[in-house]
Every structure is written in C-alpha cells, then in structure tokens.
Amino acid sequence: MASSAAANLEDVPSVNLMTELLRRMKCSSKPDKRLILIGPPGSGKGTQSPIIKDEYCLCHLATGDMLRAAVAAKTPLGIKAKEAMDKGELVSDDLVVGIIDEAMKKPSCQKGFILDGFPRTVVQAEKLDEMLQKQGAKIDKVLNFAIDDAILEERITGRWIHPSSGRTYHTKFAPPKVPGVDDVTGEPLIQRKDDTAAVLKSRLEAFHRQTEPVIGYYKNKGAVAELHAEKSPKDVTAEVQKVLSS
Fold first, then answer.
1. Which residue range or ranges hold the Adenylate kinase active site lid domain (predicted)?
2. Which residues contact 231 (CB under 8 A, 6 or more apart)?
3. Under a CB-based contact definition with an 8 Å cutoff, are residues 228 and 236 in contact?
4. Is residue 157 part of a domain?
5. Is 120 a catalytic residue?
6. Mean pLDDT of 34-57
7. Active-site position among 33, 80, 141, 159
8. What is the CA radius of gyration of the chain?
9. Which pLDDT band, with edges at 50, 70 and 90, does 18 fall under?
C-alpha cells in the first residue's frame, strides 16, 4: 500500500508538489479566521475576497453557489432546497445555515472561511451565530465595504463589455479608444442589464433596508471593521491586511 501511495506522489510534477508543500507550511502558521464580507453591489468585495482567501488559506462560501452545488449533489439539504425552489419559494434561513454548516467541514475550510452574500438579514445573522456557537466558534471580523451610493452609480453605470471576449471598459476609469467600440475588434460594446442606474437603485434600496441592520448587529458585538471602499483596490487590500493582522 505504501509503495502505491509513494507512486502517486512520484506522478505529481515536483513543481506542483513543492507548491502544495509550501502552501501547507504557509497555512499551518496562519491564525483561524471566520469572516463576513458586507457591502453593496460594486463595492469591491469580489475583488478582495480571492486575495484574502489566498493570504489566509480560507475557503470562500458564496451561498448561491453552495445552494446550487447541494442541489446538484442531491444532499439531504439540497433535496429540501430544490423542493422549495421548485415551488417558487425562498430557501429557508435554517436550510442555508445547514448548508454552510456542512460546507465548513470540508478540508479547505480548516483555517476558516469568508462568507459573502450571507447573512443578509439580522435573523440570518442570529441563526448563523447560533450554529457557530454550537461548534465553539464565532465570527471574527465583519468587513464592511462602506461606500457612497453616488460613487457606486458612477462605478457601475460606466461599465461596458465586449460580449464575445469579455473585455471590460469603463467610461471614466478605463475608456475604449473609440467610445462604445472594442479596441481590438472594433465591434460595439454592450452594458449588462444589471449595470443600469434603475437596477442599481433597487438593489441599493434592498441593501440599505435589509443588510445595513446586520452591520449594526455585529457592531454591537465589536466585530465590524470599516473599510474605505471608494479607494483603489490596492489601497483597500492594504486596509484589509491591516485589519486582519491586528
């Protein structure tokens, strides 16, 4: 048996083996972190989460993806979630917390996790805390990507895309050479349906109404770190690292 295990490792290119060993060594010294990222659409959570994930060896728990994976894998919770979705109902908070609970047991989540897109309401935050408490754990930090609505509008409504290549432009921050036209092919650029002022306005209203109270809930527990999300991605990364190293 030992020889076949050794053979398995021999088949791994030495570069990959070294990378994996170095990753394990680096990760073993990292403190555990259980983080929640909260911020309106366009505040930069998606830019920062992979950086935080790699730096602290955390797993990224995006609740939408996890629900889809549980449904596809036909786990007991996934089957229940599918029943709700098929009826056009929202998946219950208890189910989502159960799916997070399951996901946290994966080896990649050993050092902790980043939760993104959940909790969206105070009730969800309470249920999440209850579940963590049973495991003797708690949320270490809630990173609040604070940013003015007007800045978000400029960021989001200025985004244009070349559909076939996925190249992205921004009327102010990264404009194409010719307005409305892809630099490489000369084909017209389009705007995503979600990137209009009207859609953004309704998403922001939902965020302020539902999710801002969650920030208040965690502030009372002393877990919130405010980030200046209007700054450049590099500056925000520096702020995040400062917060998480303290």
1. 159-194
2. 239
3. yes
4. no
5. yes
6. 92
7. 159
8. 21
9. confident
Res 24: pLDDT: 77
Q: What is the pLDDT of residues 208-226, one digit of tens each?
A: 999 999 999 999 999 999 9
Q: Residue 43 — φ and ψ, nearest 5°?
A: -85, -5
Specify the higher pLDDT residue, 90 or 153. 153
Count up the domains in the chain and report the number: 1
Residue 83, domain member (yes or no)? yes
Note if 68 is an active site residue. no
Highest mean pLDDT of the ranges 5-14, 80-89, 123-132, 170-179: 123-132
Q: What domain range is 83 assigned to? A: 31-148+211-245
**Structural tokens at position 217:** 């809930």
- Tell me, what CATH number does 235's domain have? 3.40.50.300
Q: Which of 120, 127, 141, 155 is catalytic?
A: 120
With respect to residue 226, please indicate whether it lies within any of the assigned structural domains. Answer: yes
The arithmetic mean of pLDDT across residues 112-130, rounded, is: 94
Q: What is the pLDDT of residue 10?
A: 62
Q: Starting at the earlier edge strand, list the strands of the sheet with 224-228.
A: 59-62, 112-116, 33-38, 141-146, 224-228
Respond yes or no: is residue 45 known to be catalytic: yes
Q: Position 6: which residue type?
A: A
**pLDDT number for residue 8:** 58
Instruction: Tell me whether residue 203 is one of the annotated catalytic residues.
Output: yes
Of the listed 45, 80, 127, 155, which one is catalytic? 45
Question: Looking at this protein, which amino acid is placed at residue 22?
Answer: L
* Active-site residue, from 53, 111, 167, 203: 203
**Is 159 labeled as catalytic in the residue annotation?**
yes
What is the sign of the dihedral through the CA atoms of 225, 226, 228 and 229? positive
